[in-house]
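Cross-check.
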Amino acid sequence: MKPRSVAIHRHEHRLPVVIATLVNLVLILLIPEKVQLLPTWVVPVLGVLLMTPLIAFNPKRFTRETTWSRWLSIALAILLTVANQITMVLTITQLLSGHAKGSTVLLTALQVWVSSIIAFGLVYWELDRGGPVARRDDLIWKTADADFRFPQNEQKTGQADWRPVYLDYLYIALTNMMAFSPTDAMPLTVRAKMIMGYQSITGFILLALVISRAVNILN
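Predicted model, tokenized:
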């Protein structure tokens, strides 16, 4: 498939995505192995292997896309999300059991919470209107079903060329983990609502158990 390119002034910069992904991989390395299904090095190594060709293909900005680059990017987002959710389940088990050291399990829960925000931000970023490259195409932007509606979409003047970037979707994931509901950007499609709903449920359970454990420690 021939790479698709769009106007240069509207390309999204890669750096925020790279930084967020690397932070996620470092967090996985720091999370105790007992709350991970695989050895701590497996997911970071796979993440780097997936990310390297994507950076080589679009080193500075998301200027083009092929079938293989699209699926590789989706695979990276899925890898980080699945790894995070497995770790979250194991962390919740640790919190429920009450056998783990208090300070250790609370720090682990914080690492998992931050990792969840980054991973779900990547999922929303890949999901909406076909991904970061497709959203820069005027035809796709106007005809594709939007998964999220941002406040900028409602403004009639001054925002005609506005397109969401990864940090916009990271903010969606952050507020969804804190408020357990959408804030400024609303999910429009069933898939977006289901994913946000799942993230809210897991975030609520994790936070409720962390608060409960913290109260027990203080007492």
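Helices lie at 15-30, 42-57, 67-97, 102-127, 138-143, 166-179, 190-218. The chain has one domain: 11-218. Passed to J.P. for a second look.
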